[in-house]
Amino acid sequence: MDEGNQTGVLEFFLLGLSEDPELQPLLFGLFLSMYLVSVLGNLLIILAVTSDSRLHTPMYFFLSHLSFSDICFNSTIVPKMLVNIQTANKAITYAGCITQIYFFWFFGYLDHFLLTVMAYDRFVAICHPLHYMIMMNPHLCCLLALVSWSLSVLVALLYGLMVLRLSFCTHMEIPHFFCEWAEVLKSSCSDALSNYIVFYSGTGLLGIPLMTGILYSYSKILSSILKMSSVEGRYKAFSTCGSHLTVISLYYGTGLGVYLSSAFFPSSSKGTVASVMYTVVIPMLNPFIYSLRNRDMQVALRTFVSRLFSL
């Protein structure tokens, strides 16, 4: 059969988190609630940063980009999962699956680039406070954001095009709630070795420098904090980094958990649970993490909400 015709009518079947029909209403309500909280929370962060001039700083500029990325990342996966649960239809078209893979990598990598840039921003703020506004000028901030978006587009496009080269035969079931890249590759009846080579090469060329940048920034931050004589200064420095460090730990912890569990326990459901963490739970938690201990953000949110209800 011609490969183009074969993939033109292809459908994948997402098995989801559970096939128990009694659990479907519970799963639908749970994920719908988390999705709405995630979108609303991140949208409030963006609107608060945009409307309050006190938050027009590099830190909140990158935070608004991260919030937008989280909304898109969450929306790439959860709405389709909710439709499949509600309609009891597990099918996703070939084009829909490839599109989901592309945007998964796009916004996933964008999150990692932005978290690295935010780590550098905290490094400059704490280690070079007198030169902060000069070093983190608007031109550099826009350039860092543009580079993050551009590289994410290119990497996602590469991974998506590599999947397009594959052919699929009979095994179309994906034991996941979205078109997870590794599971799609397992369903292919053609050699996917080149995909794995490109993926691990990309991870090495981009992932290792990004992680190294974060570790270097925080090693310098920790060294500077320990040299501070004032307890109040130390507390203030820790508080400005605490939210960002928490988000980084959640992202990298769950991400590593997914791929380590899939490597050592191919049939384990732990990878699927970890995927729920970084695709649904973490984007929902980010607004709370960045606002609960941040007085400026709390004031901006209260001001924005009060203005909204006063209209």
TrEMBL record:
Give TM regions: 26-49, 61-82, 102-120, 140-162, 197-216, 237-260, 272-292
- Tell me which UniProt keywords the record has, alphabetically: G-protein coupled receptor, Membrane, Olfaction, Receptor, Sensory transduction, Transducer, Transmembrane, Transmembrane helix
Question: Where does it primarily localize?
Answer: membrane
Question: What is this protein for, i.e. what is its function?
Answer: Putative odorant or sperm cell receptor.
The name under which this protein is listed is Olfactory receptor 7A10-like
Topology with respect to the bilayer: Multi-pass membrane protein
Gene Ontology cellular-component annotations: membrane
Coiled-coil region(s): none
